[in-house]
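Hi there,

I know you've been waiting on this one. I reran it after we fixed the sequence typo, so this is the corrected version. Both the input and the resulting structure follow.
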Amino acid sequence: QQILDTLYTWKQAQEVTKPEFIILGLTMTDAPFGLVGKPDKKHHPMDIIVSAGSSKKINRHTFAQTATSLSHEVLQKSILRAKGDIRNIEPELADWFFGEKEVVFHYAPLLLIDNLEKELQLLGTSYATRKSTIGVKYLAISPEIQLQDLENTHNIVTIN
């Protein structure tokens, strides 16, 4: 609580919010004279999962278009949840959007993608899905969620 009070007091003393003073995260150490730390910006990729066995069905152009569209949809859902204020979106998604925009592609069985979608819905996170006319299903997951933290992800294969 003391840290929050200190940050609140500091924020109130600022006349204008300066981007260089935005706190992205701290790696803290308890020292005899108080709390010290350094900024610790984490990079989390956006995971896009495609139904397994679909590699022969999709051409690269369609794949790239769909991935771009899904990532925009994830961002749009997050902005809507933040009531239109992009400063209030999830920090991991903001870091992704304003940073490197790393995307990691995976294959998974269709049933697993359906189960992951249900789990993400229960978690209340931003995600986007699309099912193509040829039966390929895509699932894009906000960078705030790490795949290893979800259930039953052992059948997911990362595409290199």
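Quick highlight: The beta strands are 26-31, 34-39, 46-51, 103-108, 127-131, 137-141, 157-158.

Best,
R. S.
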